[in-house]
Amino acid sequence: MKKRTISVLLQNQPGVLSRVTGLFSGRGYNIESLCVAETLDPGVSCLTLVSKGDEQIIEQITKQLHKLIDVLKVNDISEQEYVEREMVLIRVKAEASTRAEVLRIIDIFRGKVVDVSAKSYAVEATGTASKIQAFIDILRPIGIKEIVRTGTIAMSRADKKK
């Protein structure tokens, strides 16, 4: 089964997200990542979800999404060139003996310290899911106290020919 990223434009109305997630749970499909926010038009939201499935499953999911009343457009963007990002906030131990090492790791991953305490740093990083996972894996032995992670957001690449 292949990871698929699906972008859905939908009306920004109460209950729409519940209907979308209900469609997945009702058919026994798992949503690995889900992120939704307003677009330039406050009445329309863009929902980006990541799920795994073969061609038949993904085709069924997209057809079912099209049937939902508040759904305006469904696009399986994993079939084309696209850019994806995820963000993570990590609170990591940063005692006197490890502060320099933590700061080097943050710099390597182009992260940013967003909060400092006597014994920890809160760090922000963005990138692909694999980059975020590598960042977490490297910080884990130092001592991660807390992680908050967004879902994947994605956008089709612009047509270079036009």
The total count of helices amounts to 4
User: H/E order of the elements?
Assistant: EHEEHEEHEEHEE
Helix content: 25-40%
Number of strands: 9
**How far apart are the termini?**
34 Å
Return the structural class.
alpha+beta
| Low-confidence region ranges | none
Main sheet: strands, sense, barrel: 5 strands, antiparallel
Over the alpha carbons, how many angstroms does the gyration radius reach? Answer: 19 Å
Estimate what percentage of residues fall within beta strands. Answer: 35-45%
Q: Average pLDDT, to the nearest integer?
A: 92
How would you describe the shape? elongated
Q: Can you walk through the features of this model?
A:
By secondary structure, this protein is α+β, with helices and mostly antiparallel strands. The protein is about 30% helix and about 45% strand. The chain contains four helices and nine strands; from the N terminus they run βαββαββαββαββ. The chain has helices at about 15-25, 55-65, 100-110, 130-145, and strands at about 1-10, 30-40, 45-55, 70-75, 80-95, 110-115, 120-125, 145-150, 155. Strands 5, 6, 7, 8 and 9 form a five-stranded antiparallel beta sheet that branches. A hairpin with a 5-residue loop joins strand 2 (about 30-40) and strand 3. The longest helix is centred in the last third of the chain and has 15 residues, at about 130-145. The chain is elongated. The mean pLDDT is about 90.
